[in-house]
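User: Please predict the structure of the protein below. I'd like the answer in structure-token form so I can feed it into my own downstream comparison script.

Assistant: Understood. Taking the following sequence of 401 residues as input:
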Amino acid sequence: EIAQCLVGSEMCIRDRVNDMLKYELKKYILKPSLLICIIVLILLNFVKVFELYYYTGGGRAVLSGNAVQGTDILYDKYSGKITDEKINGLKTELANAEQMLKEYGIIEEPIEGTYCGYPYGDVNLFKDLISSYEYAILYSNKSAEITENARANAEFYSDKCRYEYRLSKLYEDCYKGRSLDGYYQSEGHKAIFDYKFSALLSMFIIVLAISPIVSKEYVIGYNKLISSSGKRGSVMLAKLTAAAIFTFAVTLILFASDMVYFQLIYGFDGFSAPIYALQEFEMCPFNITLFGTLVITFVLRLVFLLMFTFLVTAVSSFCKNDIISMVVSVAAGFLLVIGSELLPGVLNPTTLIGSTELFTNMNVCNILDLPVFNVVVTLSEVILLAVVFAVVSVRRGMKCC
């Protein structure tokens, strides 16, 4: 009988917690006005992605008629696994393009028989492709050279400097045994790894939804009711949980919209290829695939936005007016984004929402003579801040509600 009572009590408590969570979600988040706002911002996100493509990704040339879809045919033909057949085909087509360039010279109107409409354009495209092939073929040599230099440095510093020895060993472990056998387009991946606008939209939506989550209780007078019920702690935990669930959903939706838009406009290629298959990331210290890099990009953004969400809940717990809470939350977000530019990269929380810097070089810092990746330090800092803001929200909210 005692066991049945305990089980019944646990189920009752669980049901109450679930009811409070559903109530908080319905009260502050699942509102038609907020859902409409999210849809509008998703459309705005598409406009921004297309603007980025138009000015930096060749979209202007496509729309003006200076390029044709033949370039996509060319990349589809030679991307993927590198073979002798593709290498010979590239050499032959380059020779043909150079011969056509001699015949026609620099022309103003596009002609038939070319990939991009102009012989000089084809010559440049083939040279770029050959350069990318050379990078992939020779990458194993570069990897071996880095590994050998790191091994030599480790031997030199083995009895001289503990940190330099460990750093050299880290280089050796990260770069040894690398090789490439394929070529993949990089424009889409480069663009999405450094795309931050959707994260800013997420911050804006979080402010709209979460900033009144505690302060609104004062406006409608529910703070006294919560206080008299003796459930202030449960209510605050329900509020934080609802805020976290909402942040995860918003981050996932906007990041998914990024993926869809960049796929439609740029196109992704080689999800299973290592990140260093893209020449821009040849010095990336992490042996991860391009798909894995996208997953990590999402996770890092989510951690940053959860930290910002708990910052907003902390602000809301100190404010007795929802308008003031929203204004202060916007100001806090502005200071977080603008002020972080003054911080060193390892202490800058916003580096988590633009991950190109994290993947392009071996960025480490010395912590107790141990080389630690900057991203680990930054991630730890942001997680710590998130915990601090969550604790402040709960403690302050329990005093006020």
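That's the full token string. Residues 25 and 245 are 9 Å apart (CA to CA).
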